[in-house]
Amino acid sequence: MAVHRIAILALDGVMPLDLAIPAQIFSTRPETPYEMTVCAFAAKVPTTGGFTVVVGGDLEQVRAADTVIVPGTEPPRRQPEAVLAALAEAHQRGTRMVSICTGAFALGAAGVLDGLHATTHWRYIDDFERAFPAVSVDRDVLYVDEGDVLTSAGVCCGIDLCLHIVRHDLGATVANRIARNLVAAPHREGGQAQYVPAPVPVAGDASLSGTREWALRRLGEQVTLRELARHAGLSQRTLMRRFTEETGTTPLQWLLNARLGRARELLETTDHPVDHVARDCGLGTAANLRLHFRRVLDTTPTAYRRTFGN
């Protein structure tokens, strides 16, 4: 695999977790082509964690990278003109630009987000919308993918976005392997609205994770809403409400995405015919699998296998 250079730009006041997420996910592994460097305007960067990071790269490596990732700061702050110029230059030469959390403020100030959809942490999203009127703000998403420009919502959504990038670059199998090593969900549904403090607390603290695990073991079967509710010991109406509160999506949409994820893995790791893949992941027919692949991934199962298959 050709080397793919990733520059993580550590801004003054960077949040340690925002910085650590891409550094962990894009660290060197035998199965990935990533060559990752933490860069900054100065050699040492103060963090909000009370310690200083010594970086290995500078703005020249930002300009030369294939992907630039900008972790967030708290609070968002104005960046030096040299930093904004390096981000703008990288964007102009076709570099993939990524922000985590409030890192979107730096991309916005550099003009990278003008005319695009973007997101940031819910706590600062009103400030972001006022500061960058040329950007279309998506408030209830985990991340936004605009092709060569990607932004994530608050902090841990950076995990979702970075795994999404790996999945796009290298396929679901590699992304899922990295997720398992992180003990992270390979793919979460819903948006950050589920994490915004609610005026009335949700009653009860019992999780539906056991029911979701039960369903994942039966993706090849026709699991119905009634069966999910029966397993959870709830009415269908209560299941729908609780499921959406926990995941940000409906049970049937969650099942569909889980089945597509399973189909991607089967296409990557087996030579099973497409109709067998459709049956084994619970989508029934090859035509139905093709329909959902086209709608969700904008490709066909055969083309996907050609790109990511072993």
Automatic annotation (TrEMBL):
<dbReference type="InterPro" id="IPR052158">
    <property type="entry name" value="INH-QAR"/>
</dbReference>
<keyword id="KW-0804">Transcription</keyword>
<dbReference type="InterPro" id="IPR018060">
    <property type="entry name" value="HTH_AraC"/>
</dbReference>
<dbReference type="InterPro" id="IPR002818">
    <property type="entry name" value="DJ-1/PfpI"/>
</dbReference>
<dbReference type="Pfam" id="PF01965">
    <property type="entry name" value="DJ-1_PfpI"/>
</dbReference>
<dbReference type="InterPro" id="IPR009057">
    <property type="entry name" value="Homeodomain-like_sf"/>
</dbReference>
<keyword id="KW-0805">Transcription regulation</keyword>
<dbReference type="Pfam" id="PF12833">
    <property type="entry name" value="HTH_18"/>
</dbReference>
<dbReference type="InterPro" id="IPR029062">
    <property type="entry name" value="Class_I_gatase-like"/>
</dbReference>
<feature type="domain" description="HTH araC/xylS-type">
    <location>
        <begin position="209"/>
        <end position="307"/>
    </location>
</feature>
<protein>
    <submittedName>
        <fullName>Helix-turn-helix domain-containing protein</fullName>
    </submittedName>
</protein>
